[in-house]
Amino acid sequence: xxxxxxxxxxxxxxxxxxxxxxxxxxxxxxxxxxxxxxxxxxxxxxxxxxxxxxxxxxxxxxxxxxxxxxxxxxxxxxxxxxxxxxxxxxxxxxxxxxxxxxxxxxxxxxxxxxxxxxxxxxxxxxxxxxxxxxxxxxxxxxxxxxxxxxxxxxxxxxxxxxxxxxxxxxxxxxxxxxxxxxxxxxxxxxxxxxxxxxxxxxxxxxxxxxx
Length: 211
Known about the structure:
Structural class: alpha+beta
Helix content: 25-40%
Shape: globular
Low-confidence stretches: 112-118
Distance between the termini: 23 Å
Oligomer: single chain
Mean pLDDT: 83
Radius of gyration: 18 Å
């Protein structure tokens, strides 16, 4: 549908240039994940995850809820990741058109019991195409990519994997993050056990080297 200026600060909507920071994506089409009914199942898992998280913080119930929390969190995180990737493809097609598809992407996955974040978080996602890196801001846990936090040519962006220890409901674990650095700042897309950052880094490196 549109295209970005070389510096990534402006987006052409077909009739006029709009500041990238002011672009608001409309309601995206329904994804296959939604049409199949799997989203409702994922939402049930998320709600159970939230209940178990709070039970796990209560010492008398912690020993009962720990294993269940791990199972439910894994299911919910995997399901929401699938949904996010489908949304990323639609959001990228909206701002770049169908001729520049997503080569690799990731979204911040659901996190429970993390010391430096809310119990449930799904706020950022990154998409790499043959020419651009896009970071989208998601409007809510059950929402969609709504705003563009960063749009830039691949050669003007740096993407790296961070593996930082975090305190979770299971103790201290090392989970990967993606750190995307561009013209307007740095964006950290937080991951968990379903997070696959390496394909994103590889797609970005190949695209950046071609330019």
